[in-house]
């Protein structure tokens, strides 16, 4: 138990103090240790839960133990998380180990005060600041582990009722739904396995089996693929046929777009992909190789270098610039540890530049598909409205904000624009 506690503290410290991601910190520490799977799971659960309740845990620790080092604050967060939420460690032993750490930092540490504080905290409500007004942005922020400024922004963008639903959905894991790969199987064949059920969006199934999905024949034989219905919806709206020229610019991995391309057109479709950074380039290149898109060409190129990649305008241009990526909140428990609010202006300026850069590379009558995996009007509908005012050769065909609580199972904004043909 002591090892679980100390490793959990070390992992959380690397995330909070040293800036490592949850995944990389887990891998870094647990790869060095000989641990039983159950212990690895306990550590991952303890740290993950601490991150999912970080605002309230950190607030309480700062209130009662503000003078201790950041490393020991992480130790206190792990202790309180175990007591209030996971209950995986023996409380008395965990308290004893924490006291040792605190006394090593300050030999005059008041153990009696420490015990009084820890004993007084029994449930999550005891972690929260006093005098929080129920239903206020501050109360919602602590309840759902979301920064106050973001709660306020979502209320302004989407209204209080939708914000409630959004915050609640972000606390849940994404649904286990998969795209049926119609090049290898039809949905009825997949449903022969009773662990799969027909999902409410056509072409998708949900998985309810006890085994890991990767161990199923359906997954190993690529009869089902990792994706969400968002991109099916988008492709249903975009007019694409066998003769259309297609280009993609993306600062993120585009697995879901390529899944939908594969299902609809097979892997012989020709198209061009530009990835704006080395990380997305390597990820997208690997996906292309895995799906055997032999006629697709990928380039590591900034959007400003589009002219060096495309010799002529294209009929369909998919644009996925970097964004705040609020869609990752559900899957990354450390999302708000690393996200910087002051990065938003730079991201929005980059999105504006990307739209302006690719506008000339869409042929008359062609289509521009803009998408960002986020929930922020400044990166979505407001940005598109500004673009349409500046580029009156484009018209808006459709736009849609997807939410994690709707059947499409994702936080994503998309806009379909058409370039109006000019008269001779």
Give a written overview of the molecule.
The protein has 424 residues and is an alpha/beta fold. It is built from 19 helices and 11 strands. Helix 1 crosses helix 2 (22-30). The longest helix is centred in the N-terminal third of the chain and has 17 residues, at 70-86.
Number of strands: 11
Largest sheet: 7 strands, mixed
Order of helices and strands: HHHHHHHHHHEHEEHEHEHEHEHEHHEHEE
Name the poorly predicted regions: none
Approximately how much beta-strand content do the residues carry?
Answer: 15-25%
Average pLDDT confidence is 94
Question: How many helices?
Answer: 19
- Alpha-beta classification: alpha/beta
Radius of gyration: 25 Å
At a glance:
The chain has 424 residues and is α/β, with parallel strands linked by helices. It contains 19 helices and 11 strands.
Layout of strands and helices, then pairs:
Layout: H1 2-16, H2 22-30, H3 37-52, H4 54-64, H5 70-86, H6 91-105, H7 111-120, H8 137-144, H9 148-158, H10 160-170, E1 177-180, H11 187-191, E2 196-198, E3 204-207, H12 217-220, E4 224-226, H13 229-237, E5 246-250, H14 255-265, E6 271-275, H15 278-291, E7 296-300, H16 306-309, E8 314-320, H17 335-338, H18 344-358, E9 362-372, H19 381-390, E10 394-402, E11 412-419
Parallel strand pairs: 5-6, 5-8, 6-7, 8-9
Antiparallel strand pairs: 1-3, 1-4, 2-3, 9-11, 10-11
Helix pairs in contact: 1-2, 1-3, 1-5, 3-5, 4-5, 5-6, 8-9, 9-10, 14-15
């Amino acid at each position: 138990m002591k090892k679980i506690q100390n490793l959990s503290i070390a992992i959380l410290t690397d995330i909070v103090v040293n800036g490592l991601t949850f995944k990389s910190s887990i891998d870094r520490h647990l790869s060095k240790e000989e641990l039983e799977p159950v212990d690895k799971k306990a550590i991952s659960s303890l740290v993950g839960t601490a991150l999912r309740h970080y605002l309230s845990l950190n607030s309480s620790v700062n209130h009662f133990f503000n003078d201790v080092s950041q490393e020991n604050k992480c130790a206190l967060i792990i202790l309180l998380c175990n007591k209030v939420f996971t209950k995986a460690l023996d409380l008395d032993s965990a308290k004893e180990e924490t006291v040792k750490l605190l006394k090593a930092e300050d030999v005059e540490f008041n153990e009696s005060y420490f015990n009084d504080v820890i004993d007084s905290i029994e449930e999550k409500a005891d972690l929260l600041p006093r005098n929080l007004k129920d239903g206020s942005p501050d109360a919602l922020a602590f309840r759902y582990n979301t920064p106050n400024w973001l709660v306020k922004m979502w209320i302004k963008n989407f209204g209080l009722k939708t914000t409630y639903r959004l915050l609640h959905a972000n606390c849940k894991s994404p649904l286990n739904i998969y795209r049926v790969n119609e090049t290898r199987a039809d949905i009825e064949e997949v449903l022969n396995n009773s662990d799969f059920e027909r999902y409410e969006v056509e072409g998708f199934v949900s998985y309810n089996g006890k085994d890991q999905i990767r161990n199923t024949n359906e997954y190993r034989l690529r009869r089902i693929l990792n994706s969400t219905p968002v991109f099916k919806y988008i492709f249903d709206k975009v007019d694409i046929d066998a003769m259309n020229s297609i280009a993609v610019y993306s600062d993120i991995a585009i697995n879901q777009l390529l899944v939908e391309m594969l299902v609809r057109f097979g892997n012989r479709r020709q198209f061009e992909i530009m990835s704006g950074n080395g990380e997305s380039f390597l990820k997208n290149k690997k996906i292309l190789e895995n799906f055997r898109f032999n006629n697709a060409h990928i380039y590591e190129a900034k959007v400003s270098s589009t002219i060096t990649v495309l010799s002529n305008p294209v009929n369909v241009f998919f644009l996925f610039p970097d964004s705040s990526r609020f869609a990752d909140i559900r899957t990354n428990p450390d999302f708000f540890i690393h996200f910087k609010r002051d990065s938003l202006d730079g991201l929005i300026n980059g999105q504006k530049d990307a739209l302006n850069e690719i506008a000339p590379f869409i042929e008359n009558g062609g289509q521009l598909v803009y998408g960002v995996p986020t929930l922020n009007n400044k990166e979505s509908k407001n940005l598109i409205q500004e673009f349409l005012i500046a580029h009156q050769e484009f018209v808006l065909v459709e736009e849609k904000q997807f939410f994690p609580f709707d059947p499409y199972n994702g936080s994503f904004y998309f806009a379909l624009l058409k370039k109006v043909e000019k008269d001779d």
